[in-house]
Amino acid sequence: MAARLKQCVVRRRDGPEQHGVAASCLRELRDKACGVLAIDKPITLVLAEDGTIVDDEDYFLCLPPNTKFVALAKDEKWSSKSLDSGTSWLSESVDEVDSAAEKWKQLARQLKDDLSNIILMSEEDLQVLIDVPRSELAEELAQSETKVQVLQDTLQQVLDRREEERQSRQLLELYLEALKTEDSILSKVAEPEAAARKEMDVVDTGASSTDTAATTALSDQVLAALKEKPAPELCLDSQDLELVLKADAAALASALGWDKQKAGALQSACDQELSKRLQQVQTLLSLRSTSKGKKTLPWGDWPSAKRRK
After folding, report:
1. What is the strand order of the sheet 67-72 is part of?
2. Which of 8, 29, 65, 79 has the fewest CB atoms nearer than 10 Å to its CB?
């Protein structure tokens, strides 16, 4: 019995025309694709939806009818860039970083332009640069591996300092919580205050729709960090800290499900952290301005520090 034919759709990586072909096996599909698309052998067939390379006969037989393929000639590659049709195709030059795996290169370029950007980075950004292999980071920064090791040690110190601040904040919160549970007087005073705040919230509900608009600048990721992190001001970068400060306190409290007092305390902590970072940047810029004939911070003069595990 003859093998059953499978209906397929093939096209070139940068061509708008699609061709329908029927093939009983992967080799036959390659041969027919070369014929209808005028491509010299050898070619590579990939799925149009995600670029998966199809080179296994059993996998080809499991694909549904009318599966769309992109035929890539020699030295051609598939890319996640898409045309107006909604299908992903190769782009001859990719100038922007479109993968999370390449995020560290963007951060490395920021440091290459100005080392003081370390202070403005979030904890996540710092960890990304710390985890980059030393040789790759050295190549991106055009520095020796020895200097890059000093850089990563410094990044680790900054990350450790923020972790210590977070732990100090957690201990303080635990201490205050213990005072609330053990001191009956404080608990009795807190109850009427909470009731008064609820009454004020009920009175202010008429303005809630306009206040909520003030927090639209905050992304879901930032709001999640504010809710879940014990010291969220240390996890956010400087731009996000500014957005939190600009948000209306009542709207911020509503978005987080907190009372106004707690939201105000959060904004105060963000204000202090942002001021601390800006002050550190100004100090670095002042030190750099005193060094004549140098455009960047002296890489080789950094104190060596043992990296913490």
Report:
1. 18-23, 6-12, 67-72, 44-47
2. 65
Q: Cα-flanking dihedrals φ and ψ of residue 89, to 5°?
A: -140, 175
pLDDT (tens digit, 9 = 90+) per residue, 271-296? 999 889 988 878 777 767 765 555 55
CB 66 within 8 A of CB 8: yes
Between the CA of residue 109 and those of 10, 132, 285, what are the distances in Å? Answer: 40, 14, 18
User: What are 154-200's pLDDT values in tens digits?
Assistant: 989 998 999 888 887 888 788 888 888 777 765 665 666 666 566 55
Interior angle at CA 272, CA 246 and CA 240, nearest 5 = 40
Residue 29 tokens, joined: 């599909």
Strand 6-12 to 67-72 pairing? parallel
Residue ranges of alpha helices (H) inside 63-133 are 103-113, 123-131
Q: Tokens 């731009």 label which residue? A: 239
Instruction: Provide the CB-side half-sphere exposure for 72 (13 A, CA).
Output: 20
Question: What is the C-alpha separation between 200 and 188, in angstroms, rounded?
Answer: 19
The token duo for 290 is 């005193």
CA 189 vs CA 175, 179, 192, 258, 261: distances in Å: 18, 13, 6, 19, 15
pTM summary value: 0.34
Task: Compute the distance between CA of residue 309 and CA of residue 307 in angstroms, rounded to an integer.
Answer: 6
Q: Could you give the 3-state DSSP secondary structure of residue 144? A: coil
Token pair belonging to 43:
């070619």
Residues 266 and 229: their CA atoms lie apart, in Å, by 11
